[in-house]
UniProtKB/TrEMBL annotation:
Protein name: Restriction endonuclease
UniProt keyword annotation of Metal-binding present: no
Ranges where the Restriction endonuclease type II EcoRII C-terminal domain occurs: 256-401
Protein source organism: Paracoccus tegillarcae
InterPro entries tied to this protein: EcoRII_C_sf (IPR038365), Restrct_endonuc-II-like (IPR011335), Restrct_endonuc_II_EcoRII_C (IPR015109)
One family name in Pfam for this protein: EcoRII-C
Keywords per UniProt: Endonuclease, Hydrolase, Nuclease
GO BP: any one term: DNA restriction-modification system
GO molecular function: DNA binding; type II site-specific deoxyribonuclease activity
Domain of life: Bacteria
């Protein structure tokens, strides 16, 4: 049995600060000064398959300097595994028995990689995750519990010859806009709100992050789990019920392997393609909820179609002195290098780019500043230790954007 220890890292750092989760017990280090604050530590062996040469095997130290508060540091790590990580990347440690000893195998996973997406999905890691312990058997059991009732319904539908109708009624993925609306409805119900008004919600950026990255993500995974399960059964078993031996099922599964591969690949692509469009729907709902005037997806020049123009294209092109108060607002769930596409849309207008992406490095933020791009982020990301947003003049929270940029401008937009 493998236990996984996982924690979020700060970018460009070679040390981590895990809480004490099933590491060897700490002992008090002998010190020359008997009156000095105690230092508690433990040593254990770690293996790093991503490292090279002798760096793969390390004698790692867990140390708690009691004079510095509750933090426990892990040191003596291979620096090459940490040197080029994006902010909010991950350290994953597998703990297992090796004879009479406990072994720890360690990986770093860059937050911008496909491996990070797989990690988040497999362990059900939420955006506010910092550190946790996972047992693989328990994860599999939870996944089985989630689908147990649905599987029974699916089997009954196949035996009854109604699997096609069952797929439409019980396993169809909602359209992006519909799913986004369902997520917002659940958020409003949970918080006792009537609408997404950024001037009323205390931390509107965090609300957007909760809706898009937690509520909608959970709903999407449930719909996708059902949709893919039905599709897999139809590929292997067909739509019409019949008696099939185990050998026939295995033979059909092997014969249809290319279709099964395509099904799994489409699931990954579906997750990526829907996220950005969904975030736009949530931004639009918040603009409507706050009574903020805007136009959506208006062509301003050839091949330039920003997500939102506030208050309108006609206003920002009016030539009046007040036209300078207008702005372009773009929405990207994740950025990577795509912010450069947005920069080309700004022209002479103010450009604000809103995102819930915690993985942006400080040098990229400075590059955006040099092009006049302002970042609008959730409040919780501004001062989070795992991000690099703090201290940049071109970064503001969604609450600051609404209260300090939008509200004063609306007097001129009326």
């Amino acid at each position: 049995m493998v236990h996984l220890l996982c924690c979020t890292l700060r970018g460009q750092r070679s040390g981590t600060k895990p809480r004490q989760v099933h590491f060897p017990p700490l002992g008090t280090k002998a010190r020359k000064d008997a009156n000095a604050a105690p230092i508690r530590e433990a040593w254990f062996d770690t293996y790093w398959p991503q490292a090279s040469g002798d760096e793969r095997s390390k004698h790692t130290r867990i140390v708690h300097y009691t004079s510095k508060g509750p933090e426990t540091h892990m040191t003596r790590l291979p620096k090459e595994c940490f040197g080029y990580l994006s902010p909010a990347s991950f350290l994953v440690m597998g703990r297992y028995r090796k004879g009479e000893d406990t072994a720890y195998e360690c990986l770093t996973i860059d937050s911008t990689s496909d491996d990070a997406e797989l990690l988040l999905a497999q362990l059900d890691i939420t955006p506010d995750f910092l550190i946790g312990e996972f047992e693989t058997a328990e994860i599999r059991a939870r996944e089985q519990d989630r689908v147990l009732d649905f599987v029974e319904e699916l089997i009954a539908a196949w035996h009854a010859g109604t699997i096609v109708d069952f797929a439409r009624a019980r396993a169809a993925m909602p359209k992006t806009e519909e799913l986004a609306g369902l997520a917002r409805g659940r958020y409003l119900q949970m918080h006792g709100l009537e609408r997404l008004d950024p001037f009323v919600i205390k931390r509107p950026g965090d609300a957007l992050r909760e809706i898009s990255r937690i509520i909608e993500w959970d709903m999407f995974r449930e719909f996708q789990r059902r949709e893919r399960a039905v599709e897999l059964v139809r590929i292997v078993m067909g739509d019409d019920p019949r008696d099939m031996t185990v050998a026939e099922v295995i033979r059909q599964l092997v014969n249809e392997l290319p279709r099964v591969d395509a099904l799994m690949l489409s699931a990954s692509q579906q997750r990526k393609s829907r996220a950005g469009y969904s975030y736009e729907h949530h931004i639009e709902a918040m603009l409507v909820g706050g009574g903020i005037p805007f136009e959506k997806q208006v062509v301003i020049e050839a091949k330039k179609r920003p997500d939102f123009i506030l208050p309108s294209l006609r206003f920002i092109r009016s030539g009046d002195a007040a036209a300078a108060s207008g702005l372009i607002l773009s929405a990207k769930t994740t950025l990577r290098e795509r912010w450069k596409q947005v920069e080309r849309e700004k022209g002479e207008h103010r450009l604000y780019l809103t995102t819930v992406d915690e993985n942006i490095a400080g040098n990229a933020i400075e590059d955006m500043a040099s092009f006049g791009v302002h970042l609008v982020i959730p409040e919780s990301l501004m001062d989070a230790r795992e991000t690099e947003y703090s201290g940049h003049k071109n970064v503001l929270t969604f609450e600051q954007f609404c209260s300090g940029v939008i509200r004063p401008a609306m007097n001129q937009w009326a």
